[in-house]
TrEMBL record:
<dbReference type="InterPro" id="IPR033469">
    <property type="entry name" value="CYTH-like_dom_sf"/>
</dbReference>
<protein>
    <submittedName>
        <fullName>Adenylate cyclase protein</fullName>
        <ecNumber>4.6.1.1</ecNumber>
    </submittedName>
</protein>
<dbReference type="InterPro" id="IPR012042">
    <property type="entry name" value="NeuTTM/CthTTM-like"/>
</dbReference>
<dbReference type="Pfam" id="PF01928">
    <property type="entry name" value="CYTH"/>
</dbReference>
<feature type="domain" description="CYTH">
    <location>
        <begin position="2"/>
        <end position="149"/>
    </location>
</feature>
<keyword id="KW-0456">Lyase</keyword>
<feature type="active site" description="Proton acceptor">
    <location>
        <position position="30"/>
    </location>
</feature>
<dbReference type="GO" id="GO:0004016">
    <property type="term" value="F:adenylate cyclase activity"/>
</dbReference>
<dbReference type="InterPro" id="IPR023577">
    <property type="entry name" value="CYTH_domain"/>
</dbReference>
């Protein structure tokens, strides 16, 4: 079984930006609302994939991802999504032995910025950069699936 082991954190400042070595825009939409898994379609530049991820909260979840034709992904985003797509720019920052992914959300989820570090084992240690704040791995509101249905900009409403 494919497993994702990932810690998710809020970002406290912009200090990570000077160390970012790459970035990529993403647009992703969800094909179902509730159930035992989230199913999303994502476009990353000229590539697309479909992803099935266990609808569990925490640092360890089953995850499966497969490449699909770009035109199929565009059609799915336009016609099959059950909520507006989530848009974000992902930046990669090497820190210690790991590469962190920093997601800067746009649209209805701006100005949310979240950092994630993916691990190879549950007990693997990692260094926390000074720009990383509160861990939100166990807070379902910060999952992309949740942000599609209840965007960050609406939390205070």
């Amino acid at each position: 079984m494919a497993t994702e082991i990932e810690h998710k954190f809020l970002v406290r400042n912009e200090n990570w930006r000077e160390h970012a070595h790459a970035s990529q825009d993403f647009e992703q939409g969800y094909l179902c609302g509730e159930g035992p898994a989230s199913v999303r379609v994502r476009i990353e530049c000229e590539h697309a994939n479909i992803n099935v991820k266990a609808a569990a909260v925490g640092t360890v979840r089953a995850e499966y991802e497969y490449a699909i034709p770009l035109e199929d992904a565009r059609e799915m985003l336009a016609t099959l999504c059950v909520a507006p797509p989530v848009v974000k720019t992902r930046y990669w920052v090497k820190y210690g032995a790991h590469t962190w992914e920093i997601d800067v959300f746009g649209g209805a989820n701006a100005p949310l910025v979240v950092a994630e570090v993916e691990l190879g084992a549950v007990d693997e240690s990692f260094e926390r950069p000074d720009w990383v704040g509160e861990e939100v791995s166990d807070d379902a509101r910060y999952y992309n699936h949740a942000l599609a249905f209840e965007p960050y900009s609406q939390w205070g409403a």
